[in-house]
Write a structure and sequence with these properties.
With 76 residues, the protein is an alpha/beta fold. It has one domain: Rossmann fold (3-Layer(aba) Sandwich). A 3-stranded parallel sheet has the order 2-1-3, with helices on both faces. The longest helix has 13 residues. It is globular. The two termini are 23 Å apart.
């Protein structure tokens, strides 16, 4: 699964070494998939705490400036 995500991030999104990938999801295996996919690409993995208030999340996204934000359906 991490390989498929890494391939998608590279081929479809254009993520390269040094790019930032943020994930906003409840605790689960998706975090590990994203973590290992970033490791394979040399990208910077940024896990956002889903328990934070939306203003705090907004601040963190502005601070970390991710190139892509992966999120679960819970946060649409």
């Amino acid at each position: 699964r991490a390989n498929r995500l890494a391939n998608w991030l590279r081929d479809t999104v254009g993520i390269e070494k040094g790019d930032r990938v943020a994930i906003l999801a409840r605790d689960g295996v998706e975090h590990l998939d994203c973590f290992f996919a970033c490791g394979k690409l040399g990208a910077i993995h940024t896990a956002l705490n889903w328990r934070l208030h939306w203003r705090e999340l907004e601040y963190l996204v502005e601070l970390t400036t991710p190139d892509v934000l992966i999120y679960s359906d819970d946060f649409i």
